[in-house]
Amino acid sequence: MALFALDGSARRGAASIRRPSSQHRLAGNCRCNLGQRHLRFEPLEQRRLPAVITWDGGGGNLYWGDPLNWDTDALPGPWDDVVIPAMDDEMSPPILLQEPPDQQSGDEPEPFVAWINSLRSESSLTIDEGSLAVRQYEQVSGDLWLEGDRLGVEQLTIGAGASLGGYGTIGGSVTNHGTIHIGQSDWQTGILTIDGDYTQTEQGVLAVDIAGTTPGTGHDQLAVTGAATIENAELWAVCPSGYDFAHNDEFAVLTYASLDGKFDRYQTSSHGTHPLFPTALHRSDATYVTGAVGWVGGDGRWDDPTHWTTGAVPGEEDDVWVFGIGEPLHFPRVSYYGEQTVRRLSVEGGTFSIYGSLESSESMSFDTNLFLAGELGGTGSLAIKGQMLWRGGRITGGDADSVFWVGADLTIDSLSTELRDRTLILSGDAQLAAGSVLTLHKGASIDIRPLDRLGYTDPTLTIESGVDLIDGDGTTSLLNAGTIVYRGTSDQSPMPRIENEGTVTIESGNLTTTSYRQTSGQTTLAGGQLTSPVVDIEGGTLFGRANPG
Q: What is the SS3 assignment for 430-477?
């Protein structure tokens, strides 16, 4: 498109300019005499305005290089913002960054190169015979697959429903909310290089194949030339069936110039004679996957050395895995006695029963049915993802910031349970069964908190008749953003102070607390009473009448 400059003394909005006659022919660098006014036209450089170009598949194929596949029937250019919507068929093959075969010339056609301003894709895209240069790229869903070729980008974002896979080089920074899986194909390992910074959020997953100690040929590696930030994210170690690991093997799965954060969740598919129980060693230049101490004993006692991959009972420096082994998969029933400290413990499947004292210095995670009649403690975090029956004993922490998170169903059925120096976060449903007693000490608190992103939308704490939920020393609290159903008795001991922004229903009995504060939500007295010396309703609604006392 040629643009022309106007140069003359005509005043804007003044007398109209007469239409030129045929002798006043307009041409580049021409000067036209229109009465007392002069117009001079100069041809300027060709310019193109930015546009949004959308894939419509009009070419009937999956080739990026076919102009008919775009709604403008022209290939996107460096100025264009490109949108690839979701395919109607979720199983549709990926779009290929190539020209159609009938448009290629020669025995070895030149690799296809695409240069655009931005890309937002909800469909899968494969870069296998060319390269893509783009300023901002968001893969919302589907897979972005590289096969040894280069992607040049200022910022690549992998959405929570998307994945990045393959090998090759990405020239720019990457933020991963989804999944990165490296390698050429099944059990063909490789190296994916990010020539920039890498951020993996809590939702993100890094999945690596491991079948040997050499990066690229023995195991996958994500090589980051800049800074890596790992926001308590997840690492998957996928291992071929039958491959055996030595306990002290190390695999450099992530390299970087600097590291902020760490992986704190692990998954594995290793089922060899000596399977890999993954954990991570975070060092100054790389993160290594190494073997944790793994349970291989089937059903039995923790303190039997023959049940562990190392032939010894785990110690305070060990990371410990207990999960299903064998084919068909068997989830063990483990009984724990005695006193033991480990660094990290992850239990998946089966049943874990604790009769002694078990502590961790960093974290414990139970994705299993947990039976507690002893003590769980230590300074690390504690997460219960399976059902938990708490029948006696206590849970302790280093301070009130030590988190005890329950995402499934919790039942407390004991005359003596204690929570000390920990915040109990309930995201699943919890029930204090009739006749049970839970005493909170030293700043402990119960926080009923939905976690929508994990599917825990309406956690409920039910306090049955005959239950004592006791403030042991006047420093504890009950924070509610979910639902509390109270069916207590009239002689309830003073409960911890309550702060409500969810729903509290008192169906029977007398809920007695040292302080009751509501900032939002609803409190309903549906046959029961609320007694407290301080009742502060700052927001929300109160149905019924509270008793000062």
A: EEECCCCEEEEECCCEEEECCEHHHCECCCEEEECCCCEEEECCCCCE
